[in-house]
Protein backbone atom coordinates (compact mmCIF):
# COMPACT_ATOMS: atom_id res chain seq x y z
CA UNK A 1 0.00 0.00 0.00
CA UNK A 2 2.87 2.38 0.79
CA UNK A 3 4.40 1.77 -2.64
CA UNK A 4 1.12 2.78 -4.30
CA UNK A 5 1.09 6.01 -2.30
CA UNK A 6 4.69 6.77 -3.23
CA UNK A 7 4.06 6.10 -6.92
CA UNK A 8 0.88 8.19 -6.87
CA UNK A 9 2.69 11.04 -5.11
CA UNK A 10 5.49 10.97 -7.69
CA UNK A 11 2.99 10.98 -10.55
CA UNK A 12 1.08 13.89 -9.07
CA UNK A 13 4.29 15.85 -8.43
CA UNK A 14 5.36 15.25 -12.03
CA UNK A 15 1.95 16.29 -13.31
CA UNK A 16 1.99 19.52 -11.28
CA UNK A 17 5.48 20.36 -12.51
CA UNK A 18 4.49 19.73 -16.13
CA UNK A 19 1.33 21.82 -15.72
CA UNK A 20 3.22 24.96 -14.76
CA UNK A 21 1.57 27.87 -16.49
CA UNK A 22 3.16 28.62 -19.85
CA UNK A 23 3.75 32.11 -21.13
CA UNK A 24 0.58 33.34 -22.87
CA UNK A 25 1.01 36.14 -25.39
CA UNK A 26 -1.73 38.45 -26.66
CA UNK A 27 -1.86 41.73 -28.52
CA UNK A 28 -4.21 44.47 -29.68
CA UNK A 29 -3.88 47.36 -32.11
CA UNK A 30 -5.70 50.33 -33.59
CA UNK A 31 -6.68 49.33 -37.15
CA UNK A 32 -7.18 52.99 -38.14
CA UNK A 33 -3.51 53.84 -37.69
CA UNK A 34 -1.29 53.59 -40.77
CA UNK A 35 1.90 52.04 -39.42
CA UNK A 36 3.68 52.87 -42.70
CA UNK A 37 4.30 56.40 -41.42
CA UNK A 38 6.58 55.28 -38.56
CA UNK A 39 10.29 54.60 -38.89
CA UNK A 40 12.01 55.67 -35.65
CA UNK A 41 11.53 54.80 -31.98
CA UNK A 42 12.69 55.40 -28.45
CA UNK A 43 12.28 52.94 -25.59
CA UNK A 44 11.39 53.91 -22.04
CA UNK A 45 10.27 52.08 -18.93
CA UNK A 46 6.94 53.13 -17.46
CA UNK A 47 8.38 54.49 -14.20
CA UNK A 48 5.06 54.53 -12.34
CA UNK A 49 4.16 50.93 -13.12
CA UNK A 50 7.66 49.49 -12.59
CA UNK A 51 7.64 50.36 -8.89
CA UNK A 52 8.14 46.77 -7.67
CA UNK A 53 11.76 46.49 -6.42
CA UNK A 54 12.24 43.00 -7.86
CA UNK A 55 10.30 42.65 -11.11
CA UNK A 56 10.63 46.37 -11.83
CA UNK A 57 14.34 46.46 -11.03
CA UNK A 58 16.83 48.26 -13.26
CA UNK A 59 18.28 44.87 -14.16
CA UNK A 60 14.95 43.56 -15.48
CA UNK A 61 14.19 46.89 -17.18
CA UNK A 62 17.54 46.67 -18.98
CA UNK A 63 16.77 43.11 -20.07
CA UNK A 64 13.43 44.12 -21.55
CA UNK A 65 14.83 47.29 -23.13
CA UNK A 66 17.70 45.39 -24.79
CA UNK A 67 15.35 42.72 -26.13
CA UNK A 68 12.96 45.38 -27.47
CA UNK A 69 15.82 47.25 -29.12
CA UNK A 70 17.01 44.06 -30.84
CA UNK A 71 13.51 43.19 -32.01
CA UNK A 72 12.72 46.65 -33.41
CA UNK A 73 16.07 46.97 -35.20
CA UNK A 74 15.49 43.55 -36.78
CA UNK A 75 12.18 44.87 -38.15
CA UNK A 76 13.82 47.88 -39.77
CA UNK A 77 12.99 50.54 -37.20
CA UNK A 78 15.73 53.01 -36.26
CA UNK A 79 16.49 54.05 -32.68
CA UNK A 80 16.59 57.77 -31.90
CA UNK A 81 18.70 59.00 -29.01
CA UNK A 82 18.36 62.72 -29.68
CA UNK A 83 15.40 64.48 -31.27
CA UNK A 84 11.89 63.27 -31.87
CA UNK A 85 11.07 59.62 -32.45
CA UNK A 86 7.95 58.51 -34.36
CA UNK A 87 7.14 55.84 -31.77
CA UNK A 88 7.55 55.66 -28.03
CA UNK A 89 7.87 52.09 -26.80
CA UNK A 90 6.84 52.07 -23.14
CA UNK A 91 6.93 48.87 -21.10
CA UNK A 92 6.30 47.62 -17.59
CA UNK A 93 6.32 44.36 -15.68
CA UNK A 94 4.31 43.29 -12.67
CA UNK A 95 3.62 40.13 -10.71
CA UNK A 96 1.11 38.58 -8.37
CA UNK A 97 0.97 35.45 -6.27
CA UNK A 98 -1.26 32.72 -7.69
CA UNK A 99 -2.41 29.29 -6.62
CA UNK A 100 -3.05 26.36 -8.92
CA UNK A 101 -5.40 23.66 -7.64
CA UNK A 102 -5.55 20.36 -9.43
CA UNK A 103 -7.27 17.06 -8.86
CA UNK A 104 -5.92 13.81 -10.16
CA UNK A 105 -9.43 12.35 -10.04
CA UNK A 106 -8.24 9.35 -8.04
CA UNK A 107 -10.39 7.85 -5.32
CA UNK A 108 -9.66 4.72 -3.38
CA UNK A 109 -12.48 2.27 -2.75
CA UNK A 110 -10.61 1.18 0.38
CA UNK A 111 -11.47 4.47 2.11
CA UNK A 112 -15.15 3.48 2.00
CA UNK A 113 -14.44 0.43 4.14
CA UNK A 114 -12.27 2.28 6.64
CA UNK A 115 -8.91 0.95 5.45
CA UNK A 116 -7.42 4.40 4.97
CA UNK A 117 -6.89 4.40 1.24
CA UNK A 118 -5.63 7.45 -0.63
CA UNK A 119 -6.49 11.04 -0.03
CA UNK A 120 -8.95 12.87 -2.26
CA UNK A 121 -6.31 13.62 -4.92
CA UNK A 122 -6.53 17.42 -4.71
CA UNK A 123 -3.21 19.26 -4.73
CA UNK A 124 -2.30 22.91 -4.76
CA UNK A 125 0.77 24.81 -5.86
CA UNK A 126 1.76 28.39 -5.08
CA UNK A 127 3.61 30.36 -7.76
CA UNK A 128 4.31 33.87 -8.94
CA UNK A 129 2.62 34.96 -12.17
CA UNK A 130 4.43 37.69 -14.10
CA UNK A 131 3.17 40.01 -16.79
CA UNK A 132 5.20 41.99 -19.31
CA UNK A 133 3.25 44.74 -21.10
CA UNK A 134 4.61 46.64 -24.11
CA UNK A 135 2.73 49.74 -25.25
CA UNK A 136 3.62 51.35 -28.57
CA UNK A 137 2.55 54.98 -28.69
CA UNK A 138 2.38 57.50 -31.50
CA UNK A 139 4.84 60.10 -30.18
CA UNK A 140 2.86 62.99 -31.69
CA UNK A 141 -0.50 62.12 -30.09
CA UNK A 142 0.68 59.98 -27.14
CA UNK A 143 -2.04 57.45 -28.07
CA UNK A 144 -1.41 53.71 -27.84
CA UNK A 145 -1.48 52.28 -31.36
CA UNK A 146 -0.30 48.76 -30.51
CA UNK A 147 -0.12 46.79 -27.29
CA UNK A 148 1.31 43.36 -26.58
CA UNK A 149 1.55 41.45 -23.32
CA UNK A 150 2.76 38.14 -21.98
CA UNK A 151 1.49 36.47 -18.84
CA UNK A 152 3.00 33.47 -17.11
CA UNK A 153 5.80 32.29 -14.90
CA UNK A 154 8.72 34.36 -16.16
CA UNK A 155 10.64 34.98 -12.93
CA UNK A 156 11.14 31.29 -12.27
CA UNK A 157 13.31 30.03 -9.43
CA UNK A 158 14.82 27.34 -11.66
CA UNK A 159 18.56 27.99 -11.63
CA UNK A 160 19.02 26.16 -14.92
CA UNK A 161 16.94 28.72 -16.76
CA UNK A 162 18.83 31.80 -17.85
CA UNK A 163 16.84 34.92 -16.93
CA UNK A 164 18.35 36.98 -19.76
CA UNK A 165 17.22 34.33 -22.21
CA UNK A 166 13.77 34.10 -20.58
CA UNK A 167 13.23 37.86 -20.96
CA UNK A 168 14.57 37.83 -24.52
CA UNK A 169 12.27 34.97 -25.51
CA UNK A 170 9.27 36.61 -23.85
CA UNK A 171 9.80 39.98 -25.56
CA UNK A 172 10.45 38.23 -28.89
CA UNK A 173 7.18 36.30 -28.49
CA UNK A 174 5.30 39.53 -27.86
CA UNK A 175 6.97 41.47 -30.65
CA UNK A 176 6.51 38.79 -33.31
CA UNK A 177 2.98 40.20 -33.66
CA UNK A 178 4.29 43.72 -34.36
CA UNK A 179 4.64 44.79 -38.03
CA UNK A 180 7.66 43.19 -39.64
CA UNK A 181 9.37 46.34 -40.85
CA UNK A 182 9.11 50.09 -40.79
CA UNK A 183 7.24 51.57 -43.72
CA UNK A 184 4.80 48.67 -44.04
CA UNK A 185 1.04 48.59 -43.35
CA UNK A 186 -0.07 46.53 -40.35
CA UNK A 187 -2.35 44.37 -42.48
CA UNK A 188 0.51 43.57 -44.87
CA UNK A 189 2.91 42.80 -42.03
CA UNK A 190 0.80 40.12 -40.36
TrEMBL record:
Stretches assigned to the DUF4136 domain: 25-179
Organism classification: Bacteria, Pseudomonadati, Bacteroidota, Cytophagia, Cytophagales
InterPro entries tied to this protein: DUF4136
Keywords of this entry: Signal
Signal peptide span: 1-22
Species name: Spirosoma pollinicola
Protein name: DUF4136 domain-containing protein
A Pfam family reported for this protein in Swiss-Prot or TrEMBL: DUF4136
Amino acid sequence: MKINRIITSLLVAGTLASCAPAITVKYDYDPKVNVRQFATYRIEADRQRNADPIVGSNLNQRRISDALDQSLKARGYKPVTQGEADLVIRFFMDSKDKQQIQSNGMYSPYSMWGYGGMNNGVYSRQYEENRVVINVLDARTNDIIWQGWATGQLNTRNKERDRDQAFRETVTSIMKNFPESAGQDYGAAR
